[in-house]
Design brief:
The complex is a heterotrimer of chains A (295), B (355) and C (372).
Chain A (H helix, E strand, L loop, with lengths): L1 H35 L2 E3 L5 E5 L2 H7 L12 H32 L3 H12 L6 H12 L4 H8 L13 H26 L2 H9 L4 H30 L2 H5 L8 H9 L5 H32 L1
Antiparallel strand pairs in A: 1-2
Helix pairs in contact in A: 1-12, 2-12, 3-7, 3-9, 7-9, 8-9, 9-12, 11-12
Chain B lengths: L1 H29 L7 E7 L5 H11 L2 E7 L2 H9 L7 E2 L3 H9 L34 E13 L9 H6 L7 E3 L3 H11 L9 H14 L3 E4 L4 H6 L4 E5 L3 H6 L4 E4 L5 E10 L6 H11 L2 H11 L6 H4 L4 H4 L8 H4 L2 E3 L7 H13 L2
Parallel strand pairs in B: 1-2, 1-3, 5-6, 5-7, 9-10
Antiparallel strand pairs in B: 3-9, 4-7, 4-8, 4-9
Chain C lengths: L1 H5 L7 E11 L5 E12 L4 E5 L6 H9 L6 E6 L2 E2 L10 E4 L11 H11 L4 H14 L15 H13 L5 E5 L7 H18 L2 E6 L2 H7 L2 E6 L2 E6 L1 H6 L4 H6 L4 E11 L2 E6 L2 E5 L9 E6 L5 E3 L9 E13 L2 E8 L4 E7 L10 E6 L5 E4 L3
Parallel strand pairs in C: 3-8, 3-9, 6-7, 7-8
Antiparallel strand pairs in C: 1-2, 1-4, 4-5, 9-10, 11-12, 11-14, 12-13, 14-20, 15-19, 16-17, 16-19, 17-18
The chains are: A mainly alpha (295), B alpha/beta (355), C alpha+beta (372).
The structure holds adenosine-5'-triphosphate and magnesium ion.
Chain lengths: 295, 355, 372
């Protein structure tokens, strides 16, 4: 008992700086946002220090006393952002899963080379990389030139400023976030389990479904979360490659803090995004805990 | 002996003046002596001719530091968040009014300076500063249409602009709430500062109707107009810079229905650490040759009457840059909307969620 | 070879013919993991593969299981060629050295996995899982996860998971190496009993010669990808076919020499100053041989015992170590060669440096043809 409590004390002391760091750089800003989301917007930005209940109601569609009509436009934006994030997750997953398996089978040298290639984009700015896609996708861009040169098309394809371009950009930006966790879980995969399954008479497909998939599942889920969360807030890609024709929840927050000068509403929107993410995390954690207690 | 005496007298005098100089500079040290040699500008990106800064430093010995922002709101948010150290900012007129309400601006009495007689009073547009006691008009221009002449031989109006997609030609608008709603209001013959709900509803309907035809809402349309990927785009008069480089291919027009105009003023902040240097810079900028130097490089308008005649021919005679009075009358400038901003915000969100 | 076959008339159930597998190493060399292996194994034999690390034991098992290919050669099981079958179609199961239990499945699901993928219906499956677990002494733990078991229990589950499928051959790659000595000895006996009970062929890999000697019907001694000897434990121990086997299995005293005389009852071998009598009747004068004596084949002569009918060596005692009931004596001959003897009884009176008379029977002396 004594030893245990001493260990706990030591642990508390050791973790204190980290906890403090988290408190200062994570919880305090979060707290400020939470408080702001319940205040009245200042006329020129900032907040008036009086309670104001319209911010959350407005997200749900109710009029805020100035605009009378009920309109769920903000929920639509949230829904669209979640849809795009989900689509990004699915697309990156479909690409990364087989590729990660393929790469994990390569000789060490080639393997490292591919890992290097995949992490390479981290070293340059996202905006610069997205402008490269503008050069590729526009009517007179490389993609259309190539297709024309190959004789596949005679008129340039409409790629730029389309949903396709947005998906391409999103997938491109978030591929490393999906690839790395999946790859590392595949690398950790115990090949003797695969052999054991084959040995017991399971076909390659059954082995994959019953043994490989459950083993790499934590990596897949981590990848999905790592892609979903930043995708939800991303608006740079829809702006640059989609021509800003659709508004994402991220645009909306930016719009509120800057152009609409409505900080409390922006804060309320952010709180809703955070709540959605927390909910997803909670579902995931709940599943993991349940699975663990089953063991 | 005499010689010797006079030498010693001279020495005495020299010593006295040296001591005095020391005392003076000591006093200067106790006041921030370093600050006396610096000036910190906070400006839009690429919105001043670097040559202007070089000349200012050469003339005064004051070192100029330049930091940039992308929008009025970004600049305001940064200042509201407590950023200090900037001396001069370049807000648009409506933002100057907001900043004035927020008591962020320093009263420079720049209208008392000798050079102020060169400033066209028509450009004292800020409601909070009708006499120019605070800020100095910096630059102005229209927001019209830049187009690719290879794809569109001639373009004169917004109606022609919005008809282009029917001919399979792509158009782009600015990713800017005020500008886009502003065009919709202009086309209905309303003020770009209208906070009338019905007028805004009509503007919203117009923009939603046009939206499927607009390929992109972006500030980065110039390269795509140059490459022909976009036929025409709503853009600032600064596009003249590219038009003059390639007049065969590009053109800029102020549409006949009218257009919005912008004007930025140079304002000294209350929190400015180098207020006297800042005022020196405003005075420096009132020199016609300096104002002309800047306008020539930026290809936009100047409020300095004396500078206009110093501009190169292709700008001075250019109706887009120096429009005739009847065109001037059709240009509207943004004002702060106060609470009405919320209406615009809703319209803009509706437009951008529409499919 | 004829001796080896004589113990198992029906020993062509599992046949390995000229199995060759060479690996290219990254350093650019070639490892001859299997270098022409021939084996004939019976339907219900307990066969141990024994040999130093890297001799190719695991490679051979993997090839039989289907996880590794053969460069050339042939393997048949029950008159069926194995090599064309992919791993999951072979009637062979493996107990892995690391157990390789599926961590996300319960013990029951682990054991029933092979049956499930083979399409065995649930009621039968449940019954056979229960039986298999009972066989390995773990009845009633179906619901647990592998992480909730001790090392020994995991080992048994791995065993149950393999035998529940009733394979024609069970391959075991050092299955006991992770267990402590006590548990290991217990498992050795249980494994042997299980094999007898099931009556299927076990191909068991070990490093441990003692384990091999106690459990096997026959032992395959491998070295450098080649079979050194295949025989019963007694054959391997007492009549090693090569110097390598003699050295590898148990302790041995080997003397190099030349046959100087032979007659109808045996031969005399001159090993330096030593003349050793053997009853091997296949030797001819002049041939170079190595003669071997196990330490326990010596007896210690003292004044009370006579050496009637026995050969005697004289040596100086260098060290005496008490090993349970026996004493291990390290002695040196006049020639300078060190020999080791294991003698029974009280030896406390012996002193280092004292001369000893070590007797042996010429019937025990085994000769190995010397290799040049
Ligand atoms: N995939 C491979 N590539 C290259 N060499 C290999 C490969 N697999 C095995 N070898 C080599 O083949 C030889 C035999 O290996 P094997 O695993 O069969 O030995 P082993 O007898 O099981 O040894 P241990 O008792 O240490 O397990 C070794 O020298 C090993 O280095
Ligand atoms: Mg091995």
């Amino acid at each position: 008992m004594r030893a245990l409590s001493r260990e706990t004390t030591a642990l508390t002391l050791l973790l204190a700086p980290v906890t403090l760091f988290l408190a200062i750089f994570f919880l305090i800003p979060l707290g400020i946002m939470a408080v702001y989301s319940l205040l009245e917007p200042g006329l020129y930005g900032g907040v008036e220090w009086s309670f104001y209940h319209w911010n959350y109601g407005r997200i749900l569609g109710w009029a805020d006393g100035f605009i009378e009509e009920f309109d769920i436009v903000y929920l639509q934006v949230l829904g669209r952002s979640m849809g795009l994030a989900a689509l990004t997750v699915i697309s990156t997953l479909l690409i990364c899963f087989p590729v990660a398996f393929w790469i994990s089978r390569l000789p060490a040298k080639q393997k490292n080379f591919f890992i290097f290639l995949i992490t390479l984009p981290f070293f340059t700015s996202m905006i610069v990389r997205l402008y490269a896609w503008v050069l590729i996708l526009r009517d007179s861009g490389f993609a259309n030139q190539l297709l024309e040169w190959l004789g596949l098309i005679s008129e340039p394809l409409d790629l730029m400023f389309t949903g396709t371009a947005v998906i391409i950009g999103m997938v491109y930006i978030f591929i490393p976030f999906m690839f790395l966790p999946i790859y590392s879980s595949i690398e950790k995969l115990d090949m003797s389990l695969v052999q054991a399954s084959q040995d017991l008479g399971a076909s390659p497909f059954t082995t994959f479904r019953r043994i490989v998939l459950p083993s790499v599942m934590p990596g897949v889920i981590a990848g999905c979360i790592l892609v979903f969360i930043p995708s939800l807030g991303n608006f740079v890609v829809p702006d640059l490659l989609g021509g800003a024709r659709v508004v994402m929840i991220g645009n909306l927050v930016e719009q509120q803090f800057l152009y609409a000068r409505n900080w409390p509403f922006g804060a309320a929107l952010s709180m809703v995004i955070i709540a959605v993410m927390m909910l997803l995390m909670a579902v995931y954690l709940f599943r993991v805990v349940k699975a663990d207690s089953n063991r | 002996m005499k010689v010797l005496n006079s030498v010693s007298a001279g020495c005495q005098q020299l010593t006295r003046s040296l001591t005095l100089a020391c005392a003076v500079s000591a006093a200067a040290v106790s006041a921030p002596v370093m600050a006396a040699e610096e000036l910190n500008l906070y400006n839009w990106g690429d919105y001043i001719n670097p040559e202007v800064l070089t000349r200012f430093t050469a003339e005064t010995g004051i070192k100029v530091n330049l930091d940039t922002y992308g929008s009025n709101e970004e600049m305001l948010a940064k200042l509201q968040a407590g950023a200090t150290g900037y001396d001069i900012v370049f807000p648009s007129v409506h933002m100057q009014d907001i900043m004035s309400h927020l008591k962020l601006l320093h009263k420079t009495n720049i209208n008392q300076s000798a050079g102020f007689k060169n400033i066209d009073p028509a450009h004292l547009k800020a409601k909070t500063d009708p006499k120019g006691e605070y800020c100095l008009p910096y630059a102005w221009g229209s927001v019209g249409i830049v187009y690719n002449k290879e794809l569109v031989p001639e373009l004169n109006s917004w109606n022609e602009f919005f008809a282009l997609p029917e001919q399979g030609k792509k158009i782009a608008m600015l990713d800017d709430m005020r500008e886009d709603i502003g065009i919709a209001l202009i086309l209905q013959g309303e003020s770009v500062n209208s906070v009338d709900r019905d007028q805004l509803k009509a503007a919203q309907a117009f923009l939603i109707e046009q939206k499927p035809n607009v390929s992109a809402f972006t500030y980065d349309s110039i390269p795509m107009v140059q490459s022909g990927d976009i036929a025409a785009a709503q853009w600032y008069v600064g596009a003249m810079m590219y038009v003059l480089e390639d007049p065969e291919k590009l053109a800029y027009v102020i549409p006949e229905e009218g257009a919005t105009m912008y004007q930025e003023n140079m304002c000294v902040l209350n929190s400015a650490p180098n207020k006297s240097n800042a005022k020196a810079f405003l005075e420096f900028f009132m020199k016609p040759e300096i104002a002309a130097l800047n306008a020539a490089q930026q290809a936009n308008g100047t409020a300095n009457k004396a500078a206009v005649s110093l501009l190169p021919e292709n700008l001075r005679a250019n109706p887009a840059v120096n429009p005739p009075a009847e065109v001037m009358d059709k240009l509207q400038i943004f004002e702060d909307l106060g609470k009405g901003l919320k209406l615009y915000d809703r319209v803009w969100t509706k437009v951008r969620t529409a499919s | 070879m004829s001796i080896a076959f004589s113990h198992n008339p029906a020993s062509d159930y599992l046949r390995v013919r000229n199995a060759v597998r060479h690996f290219n190493t990254p350093e650019g060399g070639v490892v001859k993991a299997l270098d022409g292996i021939n084996l004939n194994i019976g339907q219900s034999e307990f066969i141990t593969l024994l040999g130093p690390s890297g001799c190719g034991k695991t490679t051979l098992l993997k090839i039989i299981a289907g996880f590794e290919r053969l460069d050339s050669g042939k393997i048949t099981l029950d008159s069926q060629t194995l090599l064309e079958l992919s791993a999951h179609r072979r009637p062979v199961n493996t107990v892995f050295q690391s157990y390789a239990l599926f961590p996300h499945m319960s013990v029951g699901d682990n054991v029933g996995y092979g049956l499930e993928v083979a399409g065995v219906k649930k009621p039968e499956r449940v019954q056979r899982i229960g039986e298999a677990l009972e066989m390995v002494g773990l009845a009633g733990i179906e619901k647990r996860l592998p992480s909730q078991l001790s090392g020994g229990q995991q080992q048994r589950v791995a065993l149950a998971r393999a035998i529940v499928n009733r394979p024609k051959v069970l391959l075991l790659d050092e299955p006991l190496s992770a267990l402590d000595r006590h548990l290991r000895m217990k498992m050795q006996i249980e494994l042997k009993n299980l094999q007898t009970e099931l009556g299927i062929c076990f191909l068991f890999v070990t490093h441990d010669q003692e384990e091999a000697l106690t459990m096997s019907d026959r032992i395959v001694v491998l070295n450098g990808g080649k079979v050194e000897q295949l025989g019963t434990p007694t054959e391997i121990y007492h009549r090693p076919a090569s110097r390598f086997v003699a050295d590898f299995i148990g302790e041995s005293n080997v003397f190099e020499g030349k046959v100087v005389r032979f007659d109808d009852f045996g031969a005399d071998v001159q090993c330096g100053e030593l003349l050793i009598r053997t009853e091997d009747r296949n030797l001819i004068t002049g041939s170079a041989v190595e003669v071997m004596l196990r330490p326990e084949q010596f007896t210690l002569l003292d004044s009370s015992t006579s050496a009637a009918g026995q050969q005697v060596l004289t040596a100086t005692l260098e060290q005496a170590v008490f090993v349970g009931s026996d004493h291990q004596l390290v002695c040196r001959l006049a020639s300078g060669q060190q020999i080791s003897a294991l003698v029974r009884g009280h030896c406390h009176h012996l002193q280092v440096g004292q001369p000893l008379q070590l007797a042996y029977s010429s019937a025990d002396v085994h000769t190995i043809p010397a290799v040049f």
